[in-house]
Write a structure and sequence with these properties.
Layout: H1 25-38, H2 42-56, E1 61-66, H3 72-80, E2 86-92, H4 95-108, E3 113-118, E4 129-135, H5 143-156, E5 157-168, H6 174-190, H7 195-205, H8 214-224, E6 228-235, E7 238-244
Parallel strand pairs: 1-2, 1-4, 2-3, 4-5
Antiparallel strand pairs: 5-7, 6-7
Helix pairs in contact: 2-3, 5-8
């Protein structure tokens, strides 16, 4: 990539008023570092995508990556699959993210069929697809909008297709939830974030990132029409679920 990424220091100085978190140019500049130090297991989730595609996506099938940010999921697929193995469409609402993702795909995997659209995933007209990736995106939508989106995605999937849904979750049990949150904060401290950074980012994300319980995610998927859902990955309060549309 020609545009370098930087260390996440957005919340490293005291702020009189912590603004709502948004995926602006400041976040784009440090996003790879932010994700690496803030999302436990993110690399493992990316690493599994090509294996899931090899198992469940027909050759040449279409993949949606919703809330694609800088296109890390697309790069993971392109790094493991041949150019004719799949067609990829990333979708993001942030113009800065879309611009950088397009540039990255052009530079890193020009032989692959990779496109990126700037759009709201709630109003997009979906093409038939064999695999849909929803990595840490649903949690940023208002809870009232989530079921309708998942139904759209179920309808867009071809028979035999899969949806990969990765989310930050919350526990019903307050004591268990508190333990997971504290260990997550330990994870962030171990990755170099200060107490002030942890506190200010938590404030910025309040009412912006609204997590579901893991059970609620499975229920939403089942209500959308998926007959089978499996939690295949969990690390503290972060989890990834695969939902199958039967042939």
């Amino acid at each position: 990539m020609s545009n370098a990424s930087y260390r996440d220091a957005i919340f490293s100085t005291p702020l009189d008023r912590v603004a709502r978190f948004s995926f602006d140019e400041q976040v784009v500049a440090c996003f790879p570092d932010m994700i690496r130090r803030s999302v436990p297991g993110y690399g493992q989730i990316l690493g599994m995508l090509s294996l899931i595609a090899q198992r469940h996506l027909r050759h040449g099938g279409h993949v949606y990556d919703l809330g694609c940010s800088l296109g890390a999921s697309g790069l993971a697929l392109a790094g493991a699959l041949k150019p004719n193995a799949f067609r990829y469409t990333g979708v993001d609402l942030s113009p800065a993210m879309v611009e950088r993702a397009r540039q990255t795909f052009s530079e890193e995997c020009p032989e692959h069929a990779m496109s990126v659209e700037e759009a709201d995933i709630r109003t997009l007209e979906y093409a038939p697809s064999g695999m849909i990736i929803l990595n840490f995106t649903l949690q940023f939508l208002p809870p009232a909008d989530r079921d309708a989106l998942l139904k759209q995605l179920f309808d867009a999937l071809e028979p035999g297709g899969v949806l990969v849904l990765s989310e930050k979750t919350v526990d019903v049990d307050e004591r268990d939830n508190a333990w997971r949150v504290e260990r997550y904060h330990d994870f962030k401290r171990a990755n170099g974030y200060s107490e002030m950074e942890i506190s200010q980012k938590r404030t910025a994300l309040e009412n912006v990132l609204v997590p579901d319980t893991l059970d609620a995610l499975h229920q939403r998927l089942q209500q959308a029409g998926f007959p089978r859902t499996v939690t295949w990955f969990q690390y503290l309060n972060f989890a990834s679920v695969i939902a199958f549309k039967e042939s």
